[in-house]
Amino acid sequence: MSHDLKVAVLGVGMMGAFHVDALSTRVRGARVTVVNDFLADKAAEVASKVGARVESDAITAINDPDVDAVLIASPGDAHAEQLNACLDRGIPVLCEKPLTTDISSAYAIVQKEKTLGKQLIQVGFMRRFDAEYAALRKLISDGGLGKPLIVHCAHRNPAVGDHFNSEFMIRDSVVHEVDSVRFLLGEELTSVEVIKGAATGSAPHGTHDPMLVIFETESGAIVTDEIFVRTGVAYEVRTEVVGEKGSALIGLDQNLQTKATDGRWGGNLTPSFVERFGGAYDVELQRWVNAAKAGTIDGASAWDGYAAVAVCEAGVQALRNGVKFHVRLLGGAVATIEPEEPRAGIRAPDLEGAWP
Ligand code: ISE
After folding, report:
1. Closest CA relative to residue 223, chosen from 183, 272, 270, 164
2. Hey, is 249 helix, strand or coil?
3. How far apart are CA 277 and CA 287, in angstroms?
4. Higher-confidence residue: 117 or 349?
5. Per-residue confidence (pLDDT) for residue 254, from 0 to 100
6. Which pLDDT belongs to residue 253?
7. In this predicted structure, what is the pLDDT of residue 353?
């Protein structure tokens, strides 16, 4: 394709608007022709800045003759229908996570794309385009850490709205660790359990914030993920991989460090994911545009999106039921998630009455 890729952007909340700006100013070889959002004013405001047209119906936007490719940044529950429409038209699509909001619709999308015989769907897991994640992945695949044994993740956001309950924390935030660990280790996650502790006073009643989510991988590695979305401090995302031959840590987020004559030292906190991962989002977008023009993808696939949906669903079930859930993805059928039998508790009758 020699001309600019003409992109329809569906959903122009914070992320979609960021992508519209990137496609219009920082990314080469593409332009936004159509904008859609359920908030008409928002769509009009964003479209007018980049000379795009507003289309009030998402499916009509996808089928617009002035559209070669679609960027989906709408709420997750709209994705299945929109992705299906892109596949029906046979055009490339970059879909923000989650791929869909349930395992069977995600699996159906993977199968539908497969029958078309070409990869049209890329999922927006931007951490894959961050230089530190790429370096850590290379270190691991080159054998620099030996066999990976443990991965420690911390994912902290300074503040979120009250709609961000514990389940949302898994589907919207922990989903990034699910994908990053699959990307870093190159293997599937096979089980999830969720430890709920004391909640911060800023969390609404009934929301467990923070939580510790623990995964196992196919090779038996353990992954811990502290998810804390109301720290009141900053945007912090760290990952440490401990292997047989050493360990490596990314995400220290050490920007400019200063020392002042009045005795102060330190740097600045990172306020949000836009500052931390803005560069990665732009690289992701440029590589998607290049790949879409060449008829392929360059990033997380529909399968990766589906795997993340299945593991997060197991996480939500683990949270609800208070037991570990196993995930089985492979085998040519839709993923299964099953609870582990609760282990028998330990009783110590001999101790009863042992103390006064
Ligand atoms: C948000 O949707 C993101 O994708 C951010 O990267 C993540 O840190 C945040 O928790 C999510 O809500």
Report:
1. 183
2. strand
3. 15
4. 117
5. 83
6. 86
7. 65
Rounded Cα gap, residues 122 and 113, in angstroms? 11
* Alpha carbons 143 and 213: distance in angstroms, whole number: 27
Q: What is the pLDDT of residue 351?
A: 62
Instruction: Determine the pLDDT at residue 355.
Output: 60
pLDDT one-digit tens code per residue, 22-71: 999 999 999 999 999 999 999 999 999 999 999 999 999 999 999 999 99
Alpha carbon nearest to ligand 1 atom 11, residue: 173
In DSSP notation, 178-243 reads: HHHHHHHH-S-EEEEEEEE-PPPTTSPTT---SEEEEEEETT--EEEEEEES--SS--EEEEEEEE
pLDDT of 213 reads 98
Question: 156, 173, 233, 239: which to mutate for ligand 1, most atoms within 8 A of CB?
Answer: 173
Q: What is the DSSP letter of 341?
A: P
14 CA distance to ligand 1 centroid (A)? 11
Alpha helices in the chain (DSSP H): 14-25, 40-50, 58-62, 79-89, 103-116, 131-141, 166-168, 175-185, 273-293, 302-321
Closest atom, ligand 1, to C-alpha of 173: 10
- Binding pocket residue ranges, ligand 1, CB within 6 Å: 157, 172-173, 176, 229, 273
Confidence at residue 271, expressed as pLDDT on a 0 to 100 scale = 94
Atom 4, ligand 1: which residue's CA is nearest?
173
Lowest mean per-residue pLDDT among 70-74, 85-89, 179-183, 333-337: 333-337
According to DSSP, the β-strands at 300-301 and 265-266 are unpaired
The set of residues, in sequence order, having a beta carbon less than 8 Å from that of 149 and lying 6+ positions away, is 221, 222, 242, 243, 244
Q: Ligand 1 centre from 128 Cα, in Å?
A: 14
Supply the residue whose CA is at minimum distance from atom 8 of ligand 1.
173
Closest C-alpha to ligand 1, atom 9: 173
Instruction: Please give the distance, rounded to the nearest whole angstrom, from the Cα atom of residue 117 to the centre of ligand 1.
Output: 32
